[in-house]
Amino acid sequence: MAFQPIVDVALARTTTFEALVRGPGGESAGSILARVTDDLLYRFDQACRVRAIELASELGMRENLSINFLPNAVYEPEACIQATLAVSRRVGWPVERIVFEITETERVQDRHHLRGIIEAYRDMGFTTALDDFGNGYANLDLLTDLHPDRLKVDRELIMGCHDDQRRQALLRAVKGLVDELGILLIAEGVETRDEALWLARLGITRQQGYFHARPLVESLGADLGPHLAALRSAL
Fold first, then answer.
1. CB 122 within 8 A of CB 150
2. CB-based contacts of 26, cutoff 8 Å, min separation 6
3. Hey, which CATH number is domain 2-228, 3.30.720.200, 3.20.20.450, 3.40.640.10, 3.40.50.300?
4. Would the pTM of this model clear 0.85, i.e. be above it?
5. CA-based angle 27:66:41, to the nearest 5?
């Protein structure tokens, strides 16, 4: 597993680390997921959850832990969460510090099932996030059925937003929408200082991307305090 921080520019601190699958030679998540057949999907999803929590505990993480999950690997939320609950108890990881990010939404045919997963996880104390919003199948209509706690805006809407009026208009609209729905907004794929500052001035202070830090295998990386303090002072 690799970890990438999600920061809050206004607070000048890291709030969450996202756990990302990597191969034994550092191969990307996409290359690993491409090898997972449907009959192994459940076991793979469970193994990733368990390893992410174990490693976060071993590394002394004090922030929230965000874990991607594949909805089609969850046949029944209460049954499928048992391994997560067991490892959380074993290492002393509070469930309220776990965020489940919904991925692979293009493969989900049963929206009712996905909504049931989100509601069940929330009832158990977990937080849920909808990933890659604004790209591919993760679009506005999902919010008619789903009620995530967090929404992660895809890099497609973020890149060059500081001098792209169309992207700025879309991001203002998304910000107003999630504020009204009571959803926390996170910008993914922030790669430049100009993007980070423009987003923060709009009120999108939760950010993730290479400008802040790249994912590091089995490491939480360096302290981002000075970097974030300098950024906050420029707002």
1. no
2. 217
3. 3.20.20.450
4. yes
5. 55
Alpha-carbon gap, residue 62 to 111, rounded angstroms: 34
Q: Is 56 helix (H, G, I), strand (E, B) or coil?
A: helix
Measure the N-to-C terminal CA separation of the chain; round to a whole number of Å.
34
Highest mean pLDDT among 37-41, 132-136, 165-169: 165-169
Q: Which helix (DSSP H) or strand (DSSP E) does residue 23 occupy?
A: none
- pLDDT tens column, 101-146: 987 655 666 778 888 888 999 999 999 999 988 876 557 777 888 8
Residues 135, 170: Cα–Cα separation, whole Å: 13
Q: Quickly list H helices, 72-137.
A: 77-80, 82-91, 111-123
- Average pLDDT for residues 181-207, to the nearest whole number? 98
Q: Where along the chain do its domains lie?
A: 2-228
Which amino acid is present at 221? G
